[in-house]
Please model this.
Amino acid sequence: MAGTSSDKQTFDLGRQRIGTVYAKALLAAADEAGQTDAVLEDFGSLIHDVINQREDLRHAICGGIMSEEQRIEVLDKAFGGKMTPVLLTFLKVVTQHERQDCLREIYNATVKLNNERRGIVEITATTATELPEEMAANLTATLQSKLGREVVLKSEVDPDVIGGLILHIGDTVFDGSVANRLKQLRQKALETTAQEAKASLERFTNSTQS
Amino acid sequence: MKFNADEIASVIKQEIQQFDTQVDVREVGRVLEVGDGIARVYGLSGIMAGEMVEFPNGTIGLAFNLEENSVGVIILGDYLTIKEGDEVKALGTLLSVPVGDAVLGRVVDPLGNPLDGMGPIQATETRPVEFLAPGVSERKPVHEPMQTGIKAVDAMTPVGRGQRQLIIGDRKTGKTAIALDAILNQKNTGVKCFYVAVGQKDSSVAGVVEVLRRNGAMDYTTVIVAGASTPAPLQYVAPYAGTAMAEYFMFNGQAALIVYDDLSKQASAYRELSLLMRRPPGREAYPGDVFYCHSRLLERSAKLSDALGAGSLTSLPIIETLEGEVSAYIPTNVISITDGQIYLQPDLFFAGIRPAMNVGISVSRVGGNAQIKAMKKVAGGLRLDLAAFRELEAFAQLGTELDEATQRRLDRGYRMVELLKQGQYKPLDVYDQILSIYAGTRGHLDEVPVVDVLRWEAEYLEFAKAKYPQIREQLEATKDLTDEVRDLMEKAIAEFQKTFVTS
Model:
């Protein structure tokens, strides 16, 4: 999961901006140490396996109840030796600046920045039922050949789609879902029927006049 | 009339058979926050300023502010059913409204949706709401008259086709009445009229529509309504939408007249939007580009060159002042943009001088060229004479003994003021105006008591119409005050004076 950002899209613009700033710094530091992939993997694991899973741990790491020294101590005890030193130092810096509540945004921004500079495109595919592994692989391969860039596919399930596939590439949506087609068909049918009804009305009134 | 169910079913069936499946490609964003007619949207990274977006409930929005991380959207319609997190779709087009003959006689909202319950508007064409004004080489000077049918206006501050003439004054001084008279007077002239009501009570707008309908003016008029209860974005867009509809006729070689009632409300709506969008406030809390907001609107009124069909768009913007304060921000802005102003004063209005035009500070910078020759000769010095009379009148109130010449000038002034009074919704033909103003300025009314002046005028016009139709015929033919016409008029007045009985 190192290639995809956190599932929940957050809309706090202020935090996102902070996240981008810290992400740039983290990536630069990781590059210098030559451990970019390891740092990203560790960071991903921290977010997905620890912060997102355990409420109490999230409070301990991201919360502001403890003093600065205590927080740094906790970080040292919990992650010392298990984590790439670059990331641990980074976490300490973040907590020193009292930005520990923005960790998730920092992670998202880091992944996004890293993907951007490596030319990786993150694509979300929404389907009505779980996308079979084989099909997902197929889709990834097709998209990769079409776009000429490496693709990370994220799969989402939404029964409202009914059938077909919706692809989100950045802000652009390619909608080939049954739901959307039904909507279009309904609109088209309504328009034509209204037009036809009006035309027949006109035919009726005109014929009485002549 | 009954519909054939089978027929409709077959239409739908055909539609389904022909429906080709295409992947729908769209650019989207998500609503971050919404309220007060604006929304902040995350995403939509490729959107351009002024582009239309669509919300899930079908409401249209306009990209107003493009920021680093979000897009500020003004919502043109119902914003109460839009929720945080809703998907916003970029439509890739600019806002446009239906135009053409189909909109005439209708009451519509700023998006061109009918409000009069007379069915959908069957327009074949649309025009973008924001449109660049014609440039220098596409115009020609204003030279044709745009008769308003109001003696005081047509004689002293004449309006030409393609001119922008501001109507300014306090509340309840008859601003709308002047604009309405101007619309009523366009009957049988082929001028298409547009009345844009911004931020007004819906009851007042209903009253205006009723007046237009009763006087048969709705046949060539469109009323664009963004009432006081509509959200600020629609009030802001309304004048541009109305102009787009009117422009269609201008670019097709026809003449159009548009009334913006009133632009101070539109400025307030724009201020509201800008403050909500966190644009920095300036003087009177208006944003920095409020001048541009009005100038780009009024610049679209023009007289087009012959190469472009010589169409014209005349505009009568209305500005409401507070306590006669013309040096406030919006009034000074609009005064400097327009080609002249008609200034209405409450004290004149309550003194019974209606239209309550203050001749001293009302001007028309280009209209003089547009007056027909006869009117120019008859009313040439009238405005300055009346302004001088006002000064003299103030002086005479001191109660000093006046010499005979001064007294005569005063008497003439009183009668001219009386003669320029005119009832509401009674626009007067320009040739009738020439007849009565000629009588006034040449001193033929000096012996008539002031209270009888209006009666004298009405009876004289009747008399001239019945006994001397050749005056009017010659005026219509030459549009000039020839010696022949002058002699005829003198003769008619002399003959009429004998029969007139003072009360």
Observations:
- The first helix of chain A runs from residue 13 to 33.
